[in-house]
Amino acid sequence: MIKERWLPSVTDTSQPGGWAVVHCKQGFLVDDNGVLFPREWLRRQELDVLMEHGVGHFDGEPVYLFELRQADELGGCRWQGLRQFMLEGDYDIFKMLGYAAQVGTWGRQHRFCGNCGAATRQVPGERAMVCVDCELQHYPRLSPSMIVLVTRGDDLLLARSPRFVTGMYSALAGFVEPGESAEECVIREVREEVQVEIRNIQYVGSQCWPFPHSMMLGFHAEYAGGDIVPQPGEIEDARWFSIHDLPPLPAPRSIARHLIDLYLARRLGHAEPVLPG
Description:
Blueprint: E1 6-8, E2 19-24, E3 27-30, E4 37-38, H1 39-43, E5 49-58, E6 61-68, E7 78-80, H2 82-88, H3 91-109, E8 120-122, E9 129-131, E10 137-138, E11 143-152, E12 155-160, E13 172-175, H4 182-194, E14 197-209, E15 214-225, E16 237-242, H5 255-268
Parallel strand pairs: 2-6, 11-15
Antiparallel strand pairs: 1-5, 2-3, 2-4, 3-7, 5-6, 8-9, 9-10, 11-12, 11-13, 12-16, 14-15
């Protein structure tokens, strides 16, 4: 049995010691030793902490999140965005920081009740904020979204958003609407973004995507008909690419890249990759 290095949980903030990560809208605080700091040392640095959360255990040690109001300066440290950790760092560290970022963002955005506007407080032992007046409890939310690789034999339908890095193409993606199934979302988004019809929709896997709180559901679908017409304002370009001549692709750890690599492996008879999780 493989022991997981990172285990999320609602760690008790009343306990002393442990490690801490520091987060704000600019990212995470890092120094030459990494992103984990001795918690008691951080408490002596007079940081402008908005709230503290227990987020779990890393290598068996408790980890806490210090969510700051703004990016304080600390000697020998710098701020680093979450995406850079995904691309370059230890994947277990990225999973921990992804979880911490979602908890911190949720806590920051739920300091006041959406029902009556009164202040909220953290619920001990739960990942919840409760209103001090109407007692409504607020829990972290996930926004379900889908991503789908559409294929036609040896061809992949890939598109690029104006927000992508230069030259990169990816699978099609979008958020699930209220009252809509994931499969209905797949059909609608493909139709809206490139005006193509699909068939044989197959679920592949999911990945929690902390930008800031998406649950990406990955699918594969076969082309059924229609000419590609990119959606204005959403899709900069979309086209068919041969598996033998692909453009720059998404980061290897992403579910978008996994969908592509999985199809290539099956088409070319290679070993199938495992979705990072």
